[in-house]
Design a protein that fits this description.
- With 479 residues, the chain is mostly helical.
- It has helices at residues 12-34, 40-47, 51-54, 56-78, 81-101, 105-133, 139-168, 175-191, 205-224, 229-250, 266-296, 301-329, 334-352, 358-384, 392-427, 432-478; strands spanning 2-4, 7-9.
- α7 packs antiparallel against α12 (301-329).
């Protein structure tokens, strides 16, 4: 290992294989989040249950993974990287195998939630490891690669599951994550190394319970607010109240499961909000676009999944450009430009969706995803750079919590808007395709409003970040 400028690094030859393994596990765990979406109707039919009940395979997954994310900062301080890696791999493998063999829906749900634990473990663990072992001058590029892996997974999920359902039935959806995790675990045995130091600390169970209750109430409330407004709002308020108790407790216990000190940094807290906006856009579009393509344009499920891949590739290109630009020139004006591009893409989608033009909507989505690529990993890296090395793991856990919660809130909110608006349009006598397009337009307009708020915050954030960087250079020059 090499100690350089106060930061822990591994030699290039030893760190690259490990990062490759971790990038792969980030992709597979993220793929697993969306792999069930196109198979919900098949699962519902197979177990003779409603699609509302089957949707708990999605909602429950997101809630459990979000809860696990909140404690990963503690786990990284308490346990070695190899222990965490193989624990995450084990639950994903067992969860996938159990899902394939599950005889009843409740058992399937239990194994699906076991998979969620693995995803919750791996997303922040990968991001934290990148920060620790990546060369300082290339941390933006490495973070952009990690971001691509995390966002590529959900985009490939519908395509992979569509193929597996076609040839093997709905149980085939879980074959890919099972086989992939077995292979990755084998490579991990050779290449994943322990990094940093660990400290003994007791785990606060009460904090975990509060986190689970808060996230469950809030996320479920958001999913219900479009159909049952009052109960949904009540659940959201209850979730926020319990979350406040969780926050207070973290400041009082000796060993908090989530150290919230990073949130004292305005720059870091703003970066969390901007990261959440990015994730709401990319996760929501990955759900809205297939619905638009399938219902409004009449494409097949598989074709809809393929069409979503084009914007995702644009996001990958944007992420690589953003990472290299950040390494070379910093985050100004990269972050504001990225959010402006997101806003433009959403406006294009909203303005052309009623024309039922696949090409024009695809172009708007491509622009939006490219903007997410430019800004997401950049704003994450920029926010984490405002923290001390000791707080990095907790900062990553906080950001990952924002990611998981926004990934749960975004689709629930926007799909609710789409469904309500489409139903209203259909009630006026509009055809099914036009009604779906109207609902899609309404959902994208709501997304554009959120994107506009993010754009304003991004410009303010960029200016503050620019001034802080210039001030630090002045201090260094004076010294």
């Amino acid at each position: 290992v090499i100690i350089r400028k106060g930061q822990f690094h591994m030699g290039k030859k030893s760190s690259t294989p490990m990062l490759m393994v971790l990038f792969c596990v980030a992709f597979v765990s993220a793929l697993n989040e969306n792999i069930i979406n196109v198979g919900l109707s098949s699962v519902a039919e197979g177990f003779s249950i409603s699609t509302v009940t089957a949707n708990w395979l999605v909602t429950g997954y997101m809630i459990v993974s979000a809860v696990v994310v909140t404690i990963v900062g503690f786990l990284l301080k308490r346990f070695r990287l190899r222990q965490i890696f193989f624990a995450g791999a084990a639950v994903l493998i067992v969860g996938s195998a159990g899902a394939i063999l599950a005889p009843t829906f409740p058992i399937l749900l239990c194994f699906r939630l076991l998979q969620a634990i693995g995803t919750g473990i791996f997303v922040p663990t990968v991001l934290n490891t990148v920060l620790v072992v990546a060369p300082r001058e290339k941390v933006g590029t490495y973070m952009s690669i990690a971001s691509c892996c995390i966002t590529f997974g959900p985009a490939f999920g519908p395509v992979v599951s569509g193929l597996m359902i076609t040839f093997l039935g709905w149980r085939g959806m879980f074959v890919v994550p099972l086989v992939a995790m077995v292979i990755i675990a084998i490579f991990g045995a050779f290449f994943v190394k322990d990094i940093g130091t660990q400290a003994k600390a007791s785990f606060d169970v009460a904090s975990l319970v509060l986190s689970a209750l808060a996230l469950t109430a809030f996320c479920y409330g958001v999913s219900e607010v479009s159909t049952a407004t009052v109960p949904g709002i009540v659940l959201m308020v209850v979730g926020v109240a319990i979350g406040a108790v969780f926050v207070v407790r973290q400041g009082r216990v000796a060993n908090p499961v989530m150290n919230l000190e990073p949130m004292r940094s305005r720059r870091f807290s703003a970066s969390c909000l901007l990261t959440a906006v990015c994730m709401m856009m990319t996760f929501s579009m990955s759900v809205l676009l297939p619905l638009y393509f399938e219902v409004a344009l009449g494409t097949s499920v598989l074709m809809a999944g393929v069409l979503v891949l084009v914007p995702v590739l644009g996001q990958a290109v944007g992420a690589l450009i953003g990472g290299r630009t950040f390494d070379a020139h910093g985050d100004w004006p990269l972050i504001p430009i990225g959010f402006a591009v997101i806003f433009v893409g959403l406006c294009v989608c909203a303005s052309v969706s009623s024309l039922l033009s696949l090409v024009l909507v695809e172009v708007g989505a491509l622009v939006c995803y490219f903007g997410v690529g430019l800004s997401m990993s950049t704003v994450q890296t920029s926010g984490l750079s405002a923290l001390s090395k000791e707080l990095n793991s907790f900062g990553v856990s906080i950001q990952a919590t924002f990611i998981q919660v926004s990934a749960s809130i975004g689709p629930s909110l926007f799909v609710g808007v789409l469904s309500a608006s489409a139903a209203t349009a259909a009630a006026t006598g509009m055809g099914a395709a036009s009604a779906e397009a109207s609902g899609f337009t309404s959902a994208i307009i709501v997304a554009a409003v959120i994107g506009a708020c993010g754009m304003v915050l991004a410009f303010a954030y960029g200016l503050i970040s620019k001034r802080q960087v210039e001030a630090s250079r002045v201090v260094v020059d004076d010294a």
